[in-house]
Amino acid sequence: MQSISQLDATFAALADPTRRAILARLALGEASVNELAEPFAMSQPAISKHLKVLEGAGLISRGRDAQRRPCRLEAAPLSQAGDWIDAYRRFWEVHFQRLDVLLEEMKATPQTGGPKEGE
């Protein structure tokens, strides 16, 4: 069973649209803090705070390449979050299948008690 605290940290990190955008950028490949900050109208320290949240959740890691410290996506926590969401998707699929069966039964059953044509 997956760690609830890891799942909590993942969803807390994903709650912010800037952090989701950073993850989307990192899905394309490694990037420096400056490269990640470029599309946002916020200071580099603000971006660094977002990166710390993502790093704390295990969603990114930072390497070292000479003077550069590239960030990279760590997808394992996203997979765990996907598994958690997937369990609820299956729950709804079962309920929709039951609804489909009920609707088909209602279509096949002659209606009684309502007004007849021509009345």
Explain this structure.
This protein is mainly alpha-helical and 119 residues long. The chain is built from 5 helices and 2 strands. 61% of the residues lie in helices and 5% in strands. A hairpin with an 8-residue loop joins strand 1 and strand 2 (71-73). It is elongated and about 85 Å long. The mean pLDDT is 90.
What are the SSEs and their pairings?
Elements: H1 4-14, H2 17-26, H3 33-37, H4 44-56, E1 60-62, E2 71-73, H5 76-108
Antiparallel strand pairs: 1-2
Task: Give a brief outline of the structure.
The chain is mainly α and 119 residues long. Helix content is 61%, strand content 5%.
Residue-averaged pLDDT: 90
Pick out the low-confidence regions.
none
In this structure, how is the largest beta sheet organized? 2 strands, antiparallel
Q: What distance lies between the first and last C-alpha atoms, to the nearest angstrom?
A: 63 Å
Structural class: mainly alpha
C-alpha-based Rg, rounded: 24 Å
Oligomer: single chain
Q: How many DSSP-defined strands?
A: 2
- The global form is elongated
Helix content: 55-70%
Spatial strand order of the main sheet: 1-2
User: What is the N-to-C order of secondary-structure elements (H for helix, E for strand)?
Assistant: HHHHEEH
Q: What is the count of DSSP helices, taking H or I runs of 4+ residues?
A: 5
Fraction of residues in β-strands? 5-15%
Task: List the main descriptive attributes of the protein structure presented here.
two-stranded antiparallel ribbon; 119 residues; single chain; mainly alpha
